[in-house]
Amino acid sequence: MVSLYDGTAKVQEISVMCMFRNDASYIETFFVPAMENMEKQYDVVFNYYVIENNSTDNTRELLKAFFKEKSSKSKLLLFQLKTDFQNIGNGKNYERLHNLANIRNRLVNTVTPLNSEWCLFVDSNIYFKPTILEEMFQHVSSDIGMMT
Q1: If 0-12 CB within 10 Å is exposed, 13-18 middle and 19+ buried, where does residue 114 land?
Q2: Mind listing the pLDDT tens digit for each residue in 52-97?
Q3: Contact yes or no for 76/64 (Cβ under 8 A)
């Protein structure tokens, strides 16, 4: 297993934060395999904090299955109301970004404070190579604590 260092100390724990809505294909074909690969590759404890927003595909079921095997610190937040995410207004980017920021803030406010030294935000439909953490930590110093 590869150890990660943040400039001075070995990284012990990374919190992975995500928001998903109708992302079953991404979760099944990329996210779950990528995270499971990282868990095997890196000598780090990964805790997952995910918010799911009323998907109409099987996103929710895939996430529930993924979380069954995760640490007790990990947390899956499920929206219960269709109104938790509304694309309001005239459809311009501001309304969409405003709502996404509110969802991300809701996730962060629900799970903080975190005990991990690092927080990794993974946006849905973003693909990265398996060595991304090793490559990123080669270029960081100990005064940074978040990666997106």
Answers
A1: middle
A2: 888 899 999 999 999 988 877 888 888 765 555 555 555 556 666 6
A3: yes
Whether this prediction's pTM lies above 0.90 is answered by no
What is 112-144 written as a DSSP string?
Answer: PSP-SSEEEEEETT----TTHHHHHHTT--TT-
Alpha-carbon span 95 to 99, nearest angstrom: 6
For 26, the token pair is: 């991404």
Span 121-132, mean pLDDT?
84
Q: How confident is the model at residue 122 (pLDDT cuts 50, 70, 90)?
A: confident
Kindly compute the dihedral angle of the four CA atoms of residues 48, 136, 146, 60, in this order, to the nearest 10 degrees.
-30
Q: Determine the Cα–Cα distance for residues 141 and 8; give it in Å rounded to an integer.
A: 7
Q: What is the DSSP string of 4-19?
A: -BSSSSB--EEEEEEE
32-58: buried (b, 16+ CB within 10 Å) or exposed (e) per residue? Answer: eebbeebeeebebebbbbbbbbbbeee
Rounded-to-integer distance, Cα 128 and Cα 48, Å: 17
DSSP tag of 96: H
3-class SS at 39?
Answer: helix
